[in-house]
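User: I'm curious whether this sequence folds into something compact or stays loose and floppy. Could you predict its structure so I can see for myself?
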Amino acid sequence: MTEEFDGKVARVVVADDQTVVREGIVMLLGLLPGVEVVGAAGDGDEAVRLVAELAPDVVLMDLRMPRCDGVAATRRIRTEYPGTQVVVLTTFGDDESLFPALKAGARGYLTKDAGGDEIVRAVHSVLSGDAGLSPSVQRRLLERLSEPEPRSAEPAEPPDGLTARETEVLLLIAEGLSNQEIARTLHVSTATVKTHINNMFAKTGIKDRAQAVRYAYAKGLVRPPMG
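Assistant: Here's the prediction. I'll summarize afterward.
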């Protein structure tokens, strides 16, 4: 069942090196409301060029492509054209693919067994500032984040002047919890959670939840997965 998105149509570029797959995605999205495919690329270099020319809202990015792969293209797009978001759409859901893509700046990550409605939802989620992650990817992230880690002798001082509570909220965001789930976990109201998040974003320069996850890794608050 297709969802409505307040009449907003997201302009999308599809990047995939396999012609049949790329054309299939373009055709599928052309049948669904909420998105307009404005371009298609066969590799990362072409995806970056189309972003420069067309300024799309979102790129649906394959990872394994010649010349310039999806991770490198994502990093270039997010650095040079920050107004365009990236949702990875790939066959690969392993950690070696997932974490580099998120670190490069992808806000969404779907595997190619996703349906058309799921792709459209992910596109609009990232445009709303949320993460567009498939359920299987969310589970993988939570599994990795919940694995026991060796604790240092001294707890790290919260970075950027964050309070202990703001740091706690950041870690719960990194675990994939929603505002409502964080409120239940901390036994506070959702309004209080939003206040902590706004204060945290102001202190750190973070703009959305996907950046919060990357910030937690960069500051050593969450350990990256072992290979």
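Summary: Residues 150-155 have pLDDT under 50 and may be disordered. The two ends are 39 Å apart (CA to CA).
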